Amino acid sequence: MKTLLRRLLFILPGLAVLIVLFYAEEDWRGKRAWENCKRELEAKGEVLDWNAYIPAPVPDDQNFFKVPKMTEWFVGRVRTDLMERLSNTNTTATITTESAARNYLAWSDQFEPDFDLIRTALKRPYARMGGDYTQPYAMPIPNFVASRDLAQILAQRAKCYLLLGQPEKALREVTLLNDSRHFLEGAPTGKPMTLVAAMINVAVTGLYVDTIANGLQSHAWQEPQLVALQEQLGKVNLSPFVVEAFRDGIVTATYTLEKTPPAVIADQFITLRGGKPNLWRRLKNPFYTFLIFAPRGWVYQNMVTYVKLRESMLDSYGLTNDLIFPSAANKSDDEIHALKKWSPYTFLEATILPGFTRATQTLARNQTLANEAQIVCALERYRLAHGEYPETLDALVPQFIEKLPHDIIGGVPLIYRPTADGKFLLYSVGWNEKDDGGEPGTLSDPKQGDWVWQYPVK
Questions:
Q1: Which of 82, 225, 262, 271 could be disulfide-bonded to 171 (CB atoms 3.0-4.6 Å)?
Q2: Which strands form 451-452's sheet, in the order they lie side by side?
Q3: Predicted structure pTM score
Q4: In angstroms, rounded to a whole number, what is the distance separating the alpha carbons of residues 285 and 441?
Q5: Which helix (H) or strand (E) holds 67?
Q6: What is the mean pLDDT of each run of 10 residues along the chain (458 residues)?
């Protein structure tokens, strides 16, 4: 027994020394890797100081969120009275009869004072939420559920007005639906931008285009509305906000991991997942365990991996020429999936990285549909003037459209041809970057097939 005790007394100090040396070595290696990564980023012009991303104060009388009710309705995660009222019906049900349309409008007219208040607020040039921006995880965020509910009921009301042959009233609802995106975008700077906010913006844009398509299907829009919609669609540009979200995400994650105590980060992670931090949730959460007990150098190595992956994602975007590069996005996706092979240097990314490639694909498709809708508005104006669709899109320029938007996949013109039944085919080559002759992809495999303008948009 005494011999065993002596051995333990000899082994344990040695083991402790080895552990200390191991932690010191890993900390040194990780810190050095992160410092090298920071120098590379700064050489590219990237700013890693979170304070540079905090939006400057703006005059109250020019701020959307300083109009009464706007902060209450559209900031944070709590359910508000507006949300309770908006969600009191099925805003996605298909309304096919004039009677049903009138009933829905009669019910939803209760929101007209609220909508008018939002319209007034949106005339202000700035959308800066009040709150604490000193820490990325504490900054205020838009209420995404409220944004979704508002967009859905406006879309439904617009479709009802179209069904009743009242396109001017439908345009009023669609315009508010489109304008509501601006407080998600943090006008006019778009900073700081979270990926969730950027993707809600993308989703609302998709609903907006679908609503326009509903009126185009029935030829309900007339020249004045088509001109207005065409102008609105021409200003839809989703990529800068997603790119900004990727860039802000680099700063948000690295600044938080470097400057914030690990226990605070871990508790914030639990909170974001919908839980309330307590001892049991902490102990069973591998994210918490890693941050608390792993060498600090492993956290730095994870930061380096995170930055490299985000930089890889940015290679999918060509903002200068309004392009998306699917092959680069797919490569980035492969790199993310490779993280499933556990490593202490990639543990955090494998835990928290969402489907960024799917986000880019959704953006590309919704931007394409917005571009196609802009062209279709011009085609409808041509049809109203000439009784038929043109042989080529060039016939639209410059009387019906100043400049034709290109296919953001590849940068070539969108493919168009009139059909024998008096309609037309308009499409992008889509995510697979090849012309499939106007054959659309399927919901089960959206990476295949063309992105075809259909009535309604699918």
A1: 225
A2: 415-418, 424-428, 451-452
A3: 0.90
A4: 40
A5: none
A6: 59 69 88 94 89 92 96 86 72 84 94 96 95 88 91 96 97 97 88 89 96 94 98 96 91 88 77 71 76 88 89 92 94 78 76 74 95 98 96 97 97 95 94 93 75 70
